[in-house]
Specification:
One of its GO terms (biological process) is carbohydrate metabolic process. Monomer. This is Obg-like ATPase 1. Keywords: ATP-binding, Cytoplasm, Hydrolase, Nucleotide-binding, Signal. It is a single chain. This protein has 17 helices and 33 strands. It is an alpha+beta fold. The protein has 3 domains: about 220 residues, Beta-galactosidase, Chain A, domain 5 (Distorted Sandwich), CATH 2.70.98; about 280 residues, Rossmann fold (3-Layer(aba) Sandwich); about 60 residues, Beta-grasp domain (Ubiquitin-like (UB roll), Roll), CATH 3.10.20.30. The strands form 6 sheets. Strands 5, 6, 7, 8, 11, 14, 16, 17, 18 and 21 form a 10-stranded antiparallel beta sheet that branches. It is globular.
Length: about 725
């Protein structure tokens, strides 16, 4: 095996630096633009991203660049997105953070998007040279791809091991994000709670306990390396002279074989860094006060070296998605509005009693909707034929929610049976343009979709000439807009019909009619402008209640499922990125699944074989698990448990419910008759080893009726007669 970091003398670094030049004293850049109005700029020196301006705010750069940065084609650039490779920090014989960021790369291609649904793409390459071999005697090739969407910048570094043996390296995409002013809580970073990290300043290992990391201390340096960090990290930026906004950094790393097969996901870390005032003054290429205008959120592999076998390719991929910190309803002038997450607790008596826990799977004909339904539910009830409307009546399947906690409870307490919670999936007939006027199976579709709590939109993101598309071409954005338009028109018909009927009841003494009319009159122009009902809010409680009772289609919670080929199951493709761009810019959820892959995996009888099959395609869980998790979050459900000799059982309750409401889920009488609840958290149960041990150690608490349930609570309800 070749040692990845061979100690060499500084003369080799000098040799590399001496080989670099700048063109006419200025660094050459490659510019990208997008039909939506976004733009990006990349230096050839270091393949260093200099600028990214999103379509939602083209006058404001997402990326920070220091005004004091060196621009001499020799020293590294301060700001932007430096490519760190093959070492993180200092290493004997290597430049700090590696040689990739101080090498002139080659522009391989630069293609501007002509279709708003596609990205503009620039590709850069770098290969081992005599200079790099003196520091690191291995053969390799680097490819760096920059994709520009409307409000998203995607960058991917690919390391090809062309050496004869395994190599090892560090790599990082060193994002500098621009912020208005980090003082006074101006910027927070979330998504890292519970993650172990190394505090580079204090030189100690810690576990992150904060929900949001606030960068407020303008003096001290922040430098944390989070080990095996989550794939999504969000920087929320408070606007001073600009709107509040957020930048979501989504990352992943994976290894592929010689022919691009068997993508295996790898662990990735994240670095959060701000130099603070004291450190900033010591940096020659950084302004004394510039620390208040930046935060680094950097994905990569730096806690340990990334091994890469000969002939294989490692990919480090990230997406920067710019959005508003508090998503608001928008017209479809710049970004067509989408059905997105509605974070309002639906008024439902007694927790989840009578609460719809159904997910309606919808989409255009022949997008793979029924195939996906069959795979997710492990049934064969839905016809999956190559012609429109093969699903006429909705197919229904109840699916147990995978829950390792309740299984562990049953094992420890020796319960005779295990009962998990359930979600109901409904496969609804395909929708076509004109459904709101009864075209195709429009009326039946709209009637069925009204009955579900969550709408899962399946969009086709794969090419296959053997599978027809109702519009004769594959365009997921067009399909989304078709569904969106039909649902808005259906809601508009509902509103207009109600107004017409109420006009006939002018003499009615019903006290609720005036508030209902007010709601309908506000909704009508809102929908006519092409907006979703989801964006409507009403200050008066009676009007808000009337709005919720209407159960409008565009007010339902929704998630988006991009159905891809088996080859794209782990990484997605340009079509999934276009859908994700539309959805996540407004704070919604988008998942990539492969119906054909899930269908094949579902044919295995045991879970172990199924997961082994999925692992070969770079997946570590089933699509069902991802869909259930997203649906639970949309429904705002928490899970609590009861356990005894007969059974260990999981129950759902709406987040924020009281102990009395939770008891009422088991039996409606219990809500009124509850005296008190004995409870212990699941984590405390695991630590102590049993309910008896938890009680002996004083962790079994006695709570009253108004106790607010927490996810994972284990209850023993004491009720009267």
């Amino acid at each position: 095996m070749v040692n990845s970091f061979v100690s060499k003398t500084a003369v080799f670094v000098s040799t590399l630096l001496a080989s670099l030049t700048s063109a006419n004293g200025e660094l050459e850049t490659v510019k990208l633009s997008h039909p939506h109005g976004s733009s990006a700029e990349v230096f050839l020196f270091g393949a260093h991203v200099k600028s990214f301006r999103a379509a939602m705010d083209p006058n404001l750069d997402v990326i920070f660049m220091s005004k004091d940065s060196f621009m001499d084609g020799v020293n590294p650039i301060r700001g932007g997105i430096p490519v760190v490779f093959p070492n993180f920090g200092g290493a004997p014989g290597f430049p700090n953070h590696g040689f990739a960021r101080i090498t002139n790369w080659t522009l391989a291609s630069n293609k501007e998007a002509t279709d708003k649904n596609r990205p503009s793409v620039a590709k850069f390459t770098m290969e081992a040279s005599n200079s790099t071999r003196q520091m690191w005697p291995v053969e390799f090739k680097l490819e760096y791809e920059v994709k520009l969407y409307a409000n998203q910048l995607k960058t991917a570094l690919r390391v090809h091991n062309t050496h004869t043996e395994q190599i090892e390296f560090h790599t990082l995409l060193h994002n500098y994000l621009w912020v208005d002013d980090s003082r006074n809580g101006g910027v927070t970073v979330s998504g890292l709670k519970g993650v172990d990290y190394f505090d580079q300043v204090a030189k100690v290992n810690k576990t992150e306990t904060r929900q949001s990391i606030s960068i407020t201390n303008s003096t001290a340096q922040t430098g944390n390396t989070y080990l095996d960090a989550p794939d999504k990290i969000v920087a929320t930026i408070k606007g001073v002279n600009t709107k509040d906004r957020s930048v979501t950094v989504q990352k992943k790393g994976f290894i592929t074989g010689k022919n691009g097969q068997k993508a295996i996901k790898t662990k990735t870390d994240a670095v959060v860094w701000n130099p603070g005032a004291e450190r900033a003054k010591k940096l020659e290429d950084f302004g004394d006060e510039e620390h208040i205008n930046m935060i680094c959120v950097e994905p990569g592999r730096v806690s340990v070296k990334q091994p890469l076998p000969a002939g294989q390719t490692y990919t480090l991929e990230q997406r920067q998605v710019k959005g508003l910190s508090t998503p608001k309803s928008r017209s479809n002038n710049l970004w067509p509005s989408m059905l997105h997450i509605r974070r309002v607790v639906t008024r439902t008596p007694s927790g989840c009693r009578g609460f719809q826990r159904s997910v309606g799977i919808v989409g255009m004909p022949n997008v793979g909707k029924s195939t996906l339904f069959n795979a997710l539910t492990k049934t064969e009830v839905a016809q999956a034929a190559n012609y429109p409307f093969c699903t006429i009546d909705p197919n229904v399947a109840r699916v147990a929610v995978p829950d390792g906690r309740v299984r562990h409870l049953a094992e420890v307490e020796k319960s005779k049976r295990v009962i998990e919670t359930q979600l109901e999936f409904v496969d609804i007939a395909g929708l076509v343009r004109g459904a709101s006027h009864g075209e195709g199976l429009g009326n039946k579709f709209l009637d069925n979709i009204r009955q579900v709590a969550v709408i899962a939109h399946v969009v086709r993101c794969f090419e296959d000439t053997n599978i027809l598309h109702v519009d004769e071409s594959v365009d997921p954005i067009r399909d989304l807009e078709t569904i969106r338009t039909e649902l808005i028109l259906a809601d508009l018909q509902t509103v207009e019909k109600r107004l017409t009927n109420l006009a006939k009841k002018k003499k009615s003494t019903d006290p609720t009619i005036p508030s209902l009319i007010e709601v309908l009159k506000r909704l009508q122009p809102h929908l006519e402008d092409g907006n979703l009902a989801e964006g409507m809010t009403f200050e008066k409680p009676d009007e808000q209640l009337q709005f919720e009772r209407l159960q409008l289609l565009t007010a339902k919670k929704a998630l988006y499922l991009c159905n891809v080929s088996e080859e794209d199951a782990a990484t997605g493709n340009d079509m999934t990125e276009a859908v994700r761009e539309r959805v996540e810019a407004e704070g919604s959820v988008c998942l990539t699944v492969s119906g054909s892959l899930e269908e094949a995996a579902a044919s295995f009888e045991d879970d172990e074989s199924q997961l082994e099959y999925l692992n070969e395609s770079g997946l570590n869980e089933t699509g069902l698990t991802k869909v259930i998790r997203a649906s639970q979050e949309l429904l705002q459900l928490q899970t609590y448990y009861t356990v005894g000799e007969k059974e260990a059982r999981a129950w759902n309750v709406l987040a924020g419910s009281t102990a009395a409401v939770a008891a009422g889920v088991i039996h409606s009488d219990f809500e009124k008759l509850l005296i008190r609840a004995e409870t212990v958290g699941y984590e405390d149960f695991v630590k102590t080893g049993s309910m008896r041990a938890a009680k002996e150690k004083g962790l079994l608490r006695s709570e009253g009726k108004d106790y607010i349930c927490q996810d994972g609570d284990i209850f023993n309800f004491l009720v009267g007669k």
